[in-house]
Amino acid sequence: MPAEDEGGSGSPSPTAIQTRVSEYWKRAGVLGRALADRPGAPTFRFTEGPPSANGRPHIGHILPRATKDLQLRYRRMRGYRIISEMAGWDCHGLPVEIEVEKRHGLKSRKEIEAFGVARFCDECRATTLSVAAIWEEVSERLGYWLDYTHPYTTMQPSYIESVWWSLKVLFDRGLLEKGHYVLPYCPRCETTLSSHEVAQGYKEATDPSITVRFPLLGEVGPPRFLLVWTTTPWTLVSNLLVTARADLTYVVVRLTDGTEAILAEAALPRYFPAGAEIVTRLTGRELAGREYRPPFPFVPPGPGRFRVALDDMVATDEGTGLVHCSPNFGPEDQRIGAREGVGGFDPLDGRGVFTSLVPLVQGKWFKTADPILIQDLADRGLLERNESVCHTYPFCWRCETPLLYRAIDSWFVRTSRFSEALVRHNSGVAWIPSHLRAGRFGNFLTEAKDWALSRSRYWGTPLPIWMCSKGHPTCIGSFAELERRSGEELPPEFDPHRVTVDRIAFACPTCGEK
Ligand SMILES: [Zn+2]
Ligand SMILES: [Zn+2]
Q: Aminoacyl-tRNA synthetase class Ia domain: which residues (predicted)?
């Protein structure tokens, strides 16, 4: 070995070897020759999944690049023509935004807007370009040969236009729709997250685990109440129903203070391990329709509110068999609330802070409101049990803020309508390693949920949907179509991000309004 490989210590220096080989590759023009087109040769199809250009590459990024390189290198040596060798960079999304937020100490969407959305996006763009340059250098050292001089980036106008085209195809087929559903929501990033983003952020957390007395109304005899368990006391503020299961047996037990509590018989050992005096038994069906006084007085009365409803999702493996239902803050709750026609109540602003709808905790973040609400329940004699529970709870994968589930407007791609076909086609795919076919990827497809793709953010592909004042959506599939509709000529350097796109308006093709 040449002396330069000795690294001065008698053992080979990988860095020195790498530098020497790189220099040789450059001198001999190896990259250009490897990437040279081979017309007529058999084709090997390849698409570079673009790494997210928001931070320096680490070893976890290097491994997949080395794996891809191995495959491409082998195919080149076997004389294949590789289509395509184009490098790519994923430039959009929360990771980049959070980098820029950190740099300027921005903590909310309001602060970003004060900072200036255009300036914010310019910084996002500059950040991804400088990070892409670092990635390019690392890839060169790694010998991962792609065409880095003509990369595709997810922020370039032609790329965004192609996304618009795909979205319009989905829209025209009725597969891109607006919905109002309960979705995972990050109160710091002030946006919804997709289910696969949520799956990346489960952590152990300690939360309150409280059992609350809901006094029944119109009972004769001693005061009676429903025992209701929750790990999210802040949602009790917006309670609208209590859910029981029709076929479960519930018991009325007499307590030492002379009052009576109702809970599922199956939950008795958990709440009264020493036994309890059972006054009577009744089924969930017999409980249905009973009215109660809600734990907090902030929700206005409305049709069907504050009574026992029935649902099969009620289980008895934890809690009391009587389930608190807050339709704005849980997917099951929303389903039941919609069926019972009780409407909703959302006392939180975009940052997860209580508004003036709940004076008791106004200005408090949802999680920090918990102890105040628990104390208030205790002061009013409604707190049956106050414990804590260690369980897995979803956190934002980018900023580690605890998520909440809330009913919100979002756009969905109806992927669930294709889950059967996706699973069928996947069964014929040659996966390496093969266990992924039925394993991680197979599971993902089997459980394919509608994709909540809209984010209430700034640095991303803007949804090409314009709403008129009457709520009719128009989906635009290309820049030319946007020019046609708006009658506005787009500048040659048109940059289709929210800052520019939000300014363009046109008459609604359905009703003529803007
Ligand atoms: Zn977040
Ligand atoms: Zn219209």
A: 22-481
